[in-house]
Amino acid sequence: MINYNKLLEELNGARLVIVTKTRTDQQIMQYYNLGHRHFGENRAQELLTKVHLPQDICWHFIGHLQTNKVKQIVPYIYSIDSVDSLELLRTIDAQSAKINKITNCLIQLNLAEEVTKSGLKKDQIPFFMANIAKFSNVKINGFMCIGPHCDDTNAINDIFAQAYEIYLQYAQTYHLTTLSMGMSHDYPLALKNHATEVRLGSLLF
């Protein structure tokens, strides 16, 4: 288990989202009591079992989200970091409008084009970005990228570098602020490629 304060120093200002999948209330509160507020869940059902925790927790949804689960989580979520289709974005927008909320979102990229992962391929990004202005109850803050599932650091680094290039391409026009990439096994490579947010779980528990 890594030292929390040392980790924050290493992140050098990048936001830490602590992934709480399968973690207990007690484990989450351990970090809450240190002042941490950004936590991530990747299943709607599990997120809903944790919304009784302090109301100033900023919950990030980081897993594949089915459109029929959007209504359940929108009231509790700080950001949906895994938007992978215009259909999903349209549903988030509609459900957010019903409760008079602007929901933060990140667009998930699948630059390695792995069949086991959701996300936009590189050639799908321009059409997606051209259509986001239609939705007034979502705020697109940037991109989320998962590195390829392999031990090849060069391959992982290449995907993160591509994600940063895409982020730069759209950041000014769309006022983007967030590039979320890097998990417990590859976050140093993500930081090297200018990640502004990392998602860590096993390293902290």
Give a brief description.
This protein is of the alpha/beta class and 205 residues long. It has eight helices and eight strands; from the N terminus they run H-E-H-E-H-E-H-E-H-E-H-E-H-E-H-E.
Relevant terms:
single chain, 205 residues, alpha/beta, TIM Barrel, 8-stranded parallel sheet, 21% strand
Characterise the protein shown here.
The chain has 205 residues and is α/β, with parallel strands linked by helices. It has a single domain (4-204), classed as Alpha-Beta Barrel (TIM Barrel). The protein is 36% helix and 21% strand. It is built from 8 helices and 8 strands, in the order H-E-H-E-H-E-H-E-H-E-H-E-H-E-H-E. It has helices spanning 4-11, 25-32, 44-48, 70-73, 86-98, 125-131, 153-174, 187-192; strands at 15-19, 38-41, 58-61, 77-83, 103-109, 138-145, 178-181, 197-200. Strands 7-6-5-4-3-2-1-8 form an 8-stranded parallel sheet. Helix 4 (70-73) links the parallel strand 3 (58-61) and strand 4. The protein starts with a helix and ends in a 5-residue tail after the last strand. The mean pLDDT is 95.
Draw up the topology in text.
Layout: H1 4-11, E1 15-19, H2 25-32, E2 38-41, H3 44-48, E3 58-61, H4 70-73, E4 77-83, H5 86-98, E5 103-109, H6 125-131, E6 138-145, H7 153-174, E7 178-181, H8 187-192, E8 197-200
Parallel strand pairs: 1-2, 1-8, 2-3, 3-4, 4-5, 5-6, 6-7
Structural category is alpha/beta
CATH C-level label: Alpha Beta
The CATH fourth-level homologous superfamily: Alanine racemase
CATH domain fold name: TIM Barrel
Distance between the termini: 6 Å
Biggest pleated-sheet summary: 8 strands, parallel
Please provide the count of β strands.
Answer: 8
**Alpha carbon gyration radius:** 16 Å
Named at the architecture level, the CATH assignment is Alpha-Beta Barrel
Summed up, the helix count is: 8
Give average pLDDT, whole number.
95
Spatial sequence of strands, sheet with the most strands: 7-6-5-4-3-2-1-8
Relative strand content: 15-25%
* Overall form: globular
Q: What is the helical fraction, as a range of percent?
A: 25-40%
Summed up, the domain count is: 1
Which parts are unreliable, with pLDDT below 50 for 5 consecutive residues or more?
Answer: none
Element string (H = helix, E = strand): HEHEHEHEHEHEHEHE
